[in-house]
Write a structure and sequence with these properties.
2 copies of one chain form a homodimer. The first copy, chain A, is built from 13 helices and 12 strands. Chain A has a 6-stranded parallel β-sheet with strand order 2-1-3-4-5-11, sandwiched between helices. In chain A, strands 7-6-8-9 form a 4-stranded parallel β-sheet. In chain A, strands 10-12 form a two-stranded antiparallel sheet. In chain A, helix 1 packs across helix 2 and helix 5 crosses helix 13. At the A-B interface, helix 4, helix 5, strand 2, helix 6 and helix 12 of A face helix 4, helix 5, strand 2, helix 6 and helix 12 of B. The first copy, chain A, binds a DNA duplex through helix 2 and helix 4.
DNA sequence: CCACCGTGAGAAAACGCTTTCTCATACAAT
DNA sequence: ATTGTATGAGAAAGCGTTTTCTCACGGTGG
């Protein structure tokens, strides 16, 4: 709240100074035409010399809108959500909207309450809650409407969705390593029950069905650097020739650990990430990954929120098809005797 | 604002259901002891069955506080501010405070107005405004009090400051490359007038005075990847053997460009960054840099804001002395005939 | 010349809460 | 029995706006 020591400036002060009633000042400030030109002028001057601006709080209370949207993210440290936040913030700023941000710290049990509370302080919610259950989500969404959901599609609630198509992106990555000749794959999957993880697993299942001769094992629970780093031993123990990490963070952690152990990438093991965060191109070797335009995700989320706020039918749901960016971390598998399908040289 | 379609639930509804007056409900909700136990119970039950929670807006208006702090950052895409935002958000969440975030897009002319507007919607401002002039800052700070400033020290206004000591950090980096034997240095400086850039320049000046035999040239205006990448030609044209980039982003961009041109790092040119962002250790070669604990910066900023909000004397100002993390991107300079002080082999 | 109407400005209600003020009740003290 | 004092609850006054309602004024038409 603004300082109250120098007696907060109120609309009454302006009215007094201009010699008119409160109502007239309000009318002038809100651009009502039904005010005499001379009075308008007087009020304007009074407001300027006093340095008056209406209290957003009082306006919000009577107008029933806060000029604010809230974003719920599971982890502010995650580049994906940073990108989305940035895109959203840019869009909101363009319409003079403010952004309230809340970090749920990957705790699905907090997300709903966080969202409800944030909703009361804002005009709408942009929700990134990959780990919340479908039931919770379906129950929550009607309560916090208007809402826009990022990176998952609620089963029942009708709500605008902006997402990266993790399934198709992951399918492309699988095809990429298959084309390179890998026949023994390992997927370092993310958090159990995370929506985008389910999408990746769906791609794995489809791939398995289509390629019975290719073996894919799954190791679960890797979402960040440390997890990737810690998985190195398991990766080595499996004798997979290609490891598909849940995301770039995991891939980079794994890459670091493997390099430290003297494992050659991609000579002995190929690694892929996901997201194409700004830094993926600077690893050693540069990381093959699937590119997700996160700021655009945020921008599109804002576009839909803006439609909603203006009572318009929001634009179509959107799924960005990630593009595979082949870089140095993937290559042909090492030639070993037990390769059932040796690549033609 | 919450939905008004299903007739927003108000304190009057609870009062009616419990058969008491509004005042009593309010007293119960705010933990006043002067309410009969039986009534308290009735009110509690009514509130729960109705699912009532007081409107934060109305409370804010009458209480004069919003339970919200605002952060102004110059660029949400910059890892330094992301880290600070994260640390701050964590601290605020711990006290049930909310965080409003505004991105000034590196535009100093917007920062002041952004801060003033944000201040009116919050109880305090955490300001990262490295490029605002001292005069503007000194004028602004009293208007938005309580405020905490990150990464610069206002000349006149008395305000808590939490900062990384860029000068000492940069001095250490200079010493590091000097010790390696470099005698011809290049500083890719940041935005003219940025506070943390001035600090680095101060370190350069002191270093020059102390080491007249070492040549340091300065190239100005690099703050991100692209700038670093674009500076490659200038870097090659200067025949410096060590380049100190403004920050890790610039260093990584430069590194990428030099690698692409076939320049050996650190064989031909050594490179240092600044900040030690999470990704600096994954470049090729890993980046020598000075580590700044950005989340801690945010956490400490919150601690001071919290003191301020509670009318306490805020904790001492804090300057984190960054630590040099020597990695692969720096090494001994190449031996050339014109080296006046060839390193002993 | 009077009734009527449009124009524009002030008074007052509303937004949903907190808190002070006021008052009724009950109990202890004289 | 009567005054005094806790105790606890309701009435009402804000907090700073917007907006509806009301009304005064001056000009037009009959």
């Amino acid at each position: 709240m603004a300082r109250r020591s120098p007696e907060r400036l109120t609309i009454a002060d302006v009215a007094e100074k201009a010699g008119v009633s409160l109502s007239t000042v309000s009318r002038v400030m809100n651009g009502s035409t039904t005010v005499d030109a001379a009075l308008t002028q007087r009020v304007r001057e009074a407001a300027v010399t006093l340095g008056y601006t209406a209290s957003p709080l009082a306006r919000s209370l009577v107008l029933g809108k806060t000029q604010t949207v809230a974003v719920i993210v599971p982890d502010l440290g995650n580049p994906t959500f940073q990108g989305a936040l940035r895109g959203l913030s840019t869009g909101a700023a363009g319409e003079n909207y403010h952004v309230l941000v809340a970090d749920s710290f990957e705790d699905p049990s907090k997300e709903a309450e966080l969202a409800r509370e944030a909703r009361r302080r804002s005009d709408g919610i942009v929700l990134c809650a990959p780990r919340m259950t479908d039931d919770e989500l379906n129950e929550l969404l009607p309560q916090i409407s208007p809402a826009v959901v990022i990176n998952r599609t609620p089963t029942s609630a009708r709500v605008p969705v902006v997402a990266a198509d993790y399934r198709s992106g992951f399918a492309q990555l699988l095809a990429h390593v298959k084309d390179l000749g890998h026949r023994k794959l390992l997927f370092l999957s993310g958090a159990e029950g995370s929506a985008s993880n389910r999408d990746r697993l769906a791609a794995v299942d489809a791939f398995r069905a289509a390629n019975p001769n290719i073996e894919i094992s799954v190791l679960t629970g890797s979402v960040n650097f440390a997890d990737g780093y810690a998985s190195a031993d398991d990766v080595i123990a499996s004798d997979a020739t290609a490891v598909l990490a849940f995301n770039d963070l995991v891939a980079m952690g794994l890459l670091g650990a493997l390099t430290a152990r003297g494992v050659d990438v991609p000579g002995e093991v190929s690694i892929t990430g996901f997201d194409d965060i700004q830094f993926a191109q600077y690893t050693t070797p540069p990381l093959t990954t699937a590119a997700v335009p996160t700021p655009e995700l945020g921008a599109q989320a804002w576009a839909r929120m803006w439609d909603l706020l203006n009572g318009r039918q929001p634009a179509y749901n959107l799924a960005f098809g990630p593009l595979v960016v082949p870089r140095g971390s993937t290559g042909r598998p090492p030639k070993t005797g037990d390769d059932p399908h040796p690549a033609a040289t």
